[in-house]
Each structure stands twice: as structure tokens, then as C-alpha cells.
Design a protein that fits this description.
Number of domains of chain A: 1
Oligomer: heterodimer
Strand order of the largest sheet of chain A: 6-7-8-3-9-10
Shape of chain B: flat
Largest sheet of chain A: 6 strands, mixed
CATH class of chain A: Alpha Beta
Number of helices of chain B: 13
CATH superfamily of the largest domain in chain B: MetI-like
Number of strands of chain B: 0
CATH topology of the largest domain in chain B: MetI-like fold
Largest interface: A-B, 31 and 28 residues
Structural class of chain B: mainly alpha
Strand content of chain A: 25-35%
Radius of gyration of chain B: 25 Å
CATH superfamily of chain A: P-loop containing nucleotide triphosphate hydrolases
Distance between the termini of chain A: 33 Å
Number of strands of chain A: 10
Shape of chain A: globular
Radius of gyration of chain A: 18 Å
């Protein structure tokens, strides 16, 4: 059974075509890294999977059930967690409230149940002492960890991570990557768009190189990073190596 | 980490508190000298104005007509009693406006072609009631509605005065709300929707709480306008503060009663303005300082 399947997905914004027929299958417990230049369609693909963007053509399956054209998008979204580059915590709520909002309002958990679930997750990711803080008072790394916890509190089947370390100061990247690594070890199915190549190499079972709205090349980290077949992939990786990011 | 955060928070609060007046003085160079100059020029300005007014040929007449202490003492209690009606009118109107205007703003922010008629209705409403002078709406409803002679609608002019004010000010306040809603970054909605919250839950839990906090100062500005416009309900014959001072003036041929009314209006708007400042500051403190929820 596949956790996620995307078939011939196309998406354009006006005349600008962002995705030109993407096929992607993700097995349960698999971690797939999407790499590629900015504008190659990584973020849009993730947003389409979460039904945040209406797609033009193609089909998306979650655990072998088609979710394209789903009548209840909210029911689909609560099964998929997404974490954004810019954290997007709710600034008027403290950490605890940020994390318990959806479990209480969407899943209908009682305050006690939701609080217990949140407390356990915050504890696990070293945020127990921050539960009453407001997002303004947290570092970028802490905010992003809270955003991850907020998504996890819904107990999603699938996590989508959209360049979650791109907005962070370099010294804060590690703490967030560590959390993601922990999730991967715990067997969480994940699709992550990332610029952190060495991290992608360490954590991903499979790496997909996106170029101009297509998955140009896919394979194990070993295959993509050491023996890329496509000239465009080679070019991209050379530029990354020059910039000392690999 | 925490220490540094504290200091940063303190700085922010200080910056928020330090009045712009002072910083604009400081930018003029040596601060003590600037303050001295400002003080001196202020004193000179007001002395000149005071001398000019009190030496005007008509001043003794104006003083006894407008600033008559005996008249003030005599009229103030009556005007103050009548002012309670103003307070009642704006208190009721404000609550209704807050609710009705929010409803209008939400109507106008509904997305998609299906809701076009509702959006159009809200737009037409706002255009219409911001365009008609308040006094005309009050006159038309206040005199017109009771004249219909329908037994099931109230005949009280105060009732129709309140209805008019709610209709007019909701048009303004809905625009204020809408500006607040539009100011919330779309990523907040994306975050909420991606957690599975419905459009309504997102609006109620995430968008509106932030939007309303942001628009408290302009909202209060509209309420100050509303408080003053309660005097217009007097044109329907309701004895509120302005109408009462008019009665006093007509009886004594002395205009000091107007001053009584003016003092009362100012006396409630100033605390309201300070209260808003306090609300805004508290909200900022709570978010920046955190810890105590």
C-alpha cells in the first residue's frame, strides 16, 4: 500500500505553468526529499497534496483513496500535517493553545485530552518550558519546532515539510533537523522540500530532483548525489557544491 | 537566552511608551536645550493668545455669556442628567454596531462567485450609509418610521435615533474591520486550513482575533465620533445633553449651558482614548513578555 500517490499532476498560476505532470509514489514509513532550484515547483507540489491549491489536472491518492475533488477537504487535511518555511504560528495564542487548537476544534478532543497530548509532544521535543510563551518570544528554531509539534498533535499519516529550515539562522538549523530526524526514525512518512542537501542525503530513502515542474530524476540519495544521470541534475549539484552546501 | 529576550522585550515596551513628542524634540539636537526652547515657545504662544482674547473689545460680554461660573453651576446638573440619555444611546448603539459591522465585514470577505450577491449587498450598504449625512438618516427614520402608524414597530424617537446611528456607524466600522481582516497575512489562513479547520473556524479562531486587536484604535476613533453624534438624536425631540443646554440657553439667554454639555462630552471621550491606549499596550506587553497567560 502506498501512503501517497500523485499521478500526472499539473498546476499553473494564470499563464505560468508550475507543475507539468508530476508522478510520485511514497510508501508507508518512507522519507522522500524533493530537491531542485527555487521555482522548480517543490512548494507548490506540497501545497497541492494538502489541497491548499486547486490542481488543474491529475489525481492524488492518500492511502490508496483518491482525495482529488474530495467533498470534505477538512477531513483530508487533518490526516496530512504540513510545516511551512515561515512557521506561521498563531501569534495571538501561546504555545499550548497553538498546539491544542486543531485537536480540540477539529478532532473534538476535550481540553484535558488535548493538553495531555500537547504536553507529551512538547516534552519530547524539548519545549516543555515554553508552553506558556507566545511565539514572539521564541527563537526561530523554537518556533519551527512548535510548528512541527502543532502538526504532529493531529497524529497525521503523512507529514509535508516545506523548506522548514530556510528561514532560520544557521546556528538554529540543527535543532530543527534533529527533530525531523527523530520523526524519520520513528517511522513517520514524510515528503520534504529542502535545500539542505547533506541532510537530505542522510535522512531520505529517496531523492527526487525537480526541474521546471517535472521530476527529472529520482533515486536513492547515493544515486542522485554521487551518480546523477541527467545533465541538469549534475549542473544543479555542481552549483550546490560550489556554494559549499553539500 | 532568556535574559537577552527580556532586555529586548523591555526595549520594545520602552519604545512603545516613549511619546513621539519627546523623540521629535531630541532629534533637534541637544535635548535639554530643545526642551527649554519648547517650553518657552509654548508659554509665549499661550500668553499671546490669552492676552489677545482677553483684550478683545467684546471679551467681557463673551465671558459673561459663555464662561459664566454662576450659570455653569446652575445648568450643569440638569445637563448632566440629560447627558445620561446620550450615554444610554451610545452604549446600546456601540454594542449593536460591534456585532452588526462585524457581520457586514465577514459578508464582504466571503470568497468565491457564489457569494457575489452578498458581497455586493455589503458594498452597496457601506457606500450608501457612508454617503448620507447622519442628520438626514436620523430625520428620515426618526420622523418617517413612527409616521407609518404600524402598531408593531416602536414609536420612540430614541429607538429610531439608535437605529439610525447603528445603521450609519456600522458602515464605517465594517470598513475598519475589513481593513483588519485584509491585514492578516494569507499564510495564517493557510496554516489554519492545513490543520483541518473549516473556513468558519479559521475566521473565528485565527483571523478575527488578530484583526480585531489591530483595529482597536481606529475603532475607538469611530466610537468617539458616535458619542458626539448622539447629540443629533436631540433633533428628534429627545431631551439629551445638547437639547437640554439649548433649553437652558433659551430660558436665560446665556450660552454657558453649552459649555456644560461640551465638558461632559470631553469628560467621557478622554478616558475612552486612554483606555484604548492601555488595551493596546497590554496586548503588546502580553505577547512580548509572555509567561503569564
Amino acid at each position: 500500500m502506498s501512503a501517497l500517490a500523485v499521478e500526472r499532476l499539473t498546476k499553473s498560476f494564470g499563464k505560468h505553468v508550475v507543475l507539468r505532470g508530476v508522478d510520485l509514489e511514497v510508501a508507508e514509513h518512507e522519507v522522500v526529499a524533493l530537491i531542485g532550484a527555487s521555482g522548480s515547483g517543490k512548494s507548490t507540489l506540497l501545497r497541492c497534496i494538502n489541497l491548499l491549491e486547486a490542481i488543474d489536472e491529475g489525481r492524488i491518492f492518500l492511502a490508496d483513496q483518491e482525495i482529488t475533488g474530495a467533498r470534505n477537504v477538512n477531513a483530508v487535511r487533518r490526516r496530512i500535517g504540513i510545516v511551512f518555511q515561515s512557521f506561521n504560528l498563531f501569534p495571538h495564542m501561546n504555545v499550548m493553545r497553538n498546539v491544542t487548537l486543531a485537536p480540540r476544534d477539529v478532532l473534538g478532543l476535550s481540553k484535558a485530552e488535548a493538553d495531555a497530548r500537547a504536553a507529551e509532544l512538547l516534552e519530547r521535543f524539548g519545549l516543555a518550558d515554553k508552553r506558556h510563551e507566545y511565539p514572539d518570544r521564541l527563537s526561530g528554531g523554537q518556533q519551527q519546532r512548535v510548528a512541527i509539534v502543532r502538526a504532529l498533535a493531529m497524529r497525521p499519516e503523512l507529514m509535508l515539510l516545506d523548506e522548514v529550515t530556510s528561514a532560520l539562522d544557521p546556528e538554529l538549523v540543527a535543532e530543527v533537523l534533529q527533530v525531523i530526524g527523530e520523526l524519520a526514525h520513528g517511522g513517520m512518512t514524510m515528503v520534504l522540500a529542502t535545500h539542505e542537501m547533506s541532510f537530505a542525503r542522510d535522512i531520505a530513502n529517496r531523492v527526487c530532483f525537480l526541474d521546471e515542474g517535472r521530476i527529472l530524476e529520482a533515486g536513492t540519495p547515493e544515486e542522485i548525489f554521487t551518480r546523477p544521470k541527467e545533465p541538469r541534475t549534475q549542473q544543479f549539484l555542481e552549483r550546490i557544491i560550489k556554494a559549499r552546501r553539500l | 537566552m532568556a535574559g537577552e529576550g527580556d532586555r529586548r522585550a523591555d526595549l520594545e515596551v520602552d519604545r512603545a511608551r516613549s511619546p513621539r513628542l519627546v523623540s521629535s524634540l531630541r532629534s533637534g539636537g541637544d535635548s535639554r536645550r530643545s526642551v527649554a526652547i519648547a517650553l518657552l515657545s509654548t508659554v509665549v504662544f499661550f500668553v499671546v493668545v490669552a492676552v489677545a482674547i482677553t483684550h478683545a473689545p467684546g471679551w467681557p460680554e463673551v465671558r459673561s455669556q459663555f464662561f459664566n461660573w454662576g450659570e455653569f453651576k446652575a445648568t450643569f446638573p440638569e445637563v448632566a442628567r440629560a447627558f445620561l440619555l446620550n450615554v444610554k444611546i451610545f452604549s446600546i448603539a456601540e454594542v449593536l454596531i460591534l456585532v452588526f459591522a462585524l457581520f457586514l465585514a465577514v459578508l464582504r470577505s466571503l470568497p468565491g462567485p457564489v457569494f457575489f450577491p452578498l458581497r455586493a449587498l455589503a458594498i452597496v450598504y457601506a457606500d450608501l450609509f457612508r454617503g448620507i449625512p447622519t442628520i438626514l438618516v436620523i430625520a428620515m427614520l426618526g420622523f418617517g418610521a413612527p409616521a407609518l402608524g404600524l402598531s408593531y414597530i416602536p414609536k420612540s424617537v430614541i429607538f429610531w435615533g439608535i437605529v439610525s446611528l447603528v445603521l450609519i456607524y456600522s458602515a464605517y466600522v465594517s470598513e475598519v474591520y475589513r481593513a483588519g481582516i485584509d491585514s492578516i497575512h494569507p499564510s495564517q489562513e493557510a496554516a489554519a486550513r492545513s490543520l483541518g479547520l473549516s473556513r468558519g473556524q479559521t475566521l473565528r479562531r485565527v483571523i478575527l482575533p488578530q484583526a480585531v486587536r489591530r483595529v482597536i484604535p481606529p475603532l475607538l476613533n469611530d466610537f468617539i465620533g458616535l458619542q458626539k453624534d448622539t447629540a443629533l438624536v436631540g433633533t428628534l425631540g429627545a431631551i439629551e445633553a445638547f437639547q437640554q443646554s439649548q433649553i437652558d440657553t433659551n430660558a436665560t439667554f446665556n450660552f454657558t449651558a453649552y459649555l456644560s454639555a461640551a465638558v461632559l462630552f470631553v469628560a467621557i471621550t478622554i478616558p475612552l482614548a486612554r483606555f484604548t491606549d492601555w488595551l493596546v499596550a497590554r496586548d503588546r506587553r502580553r505577547r512580548v513578555a509572555g509567561g503569564i497567560a
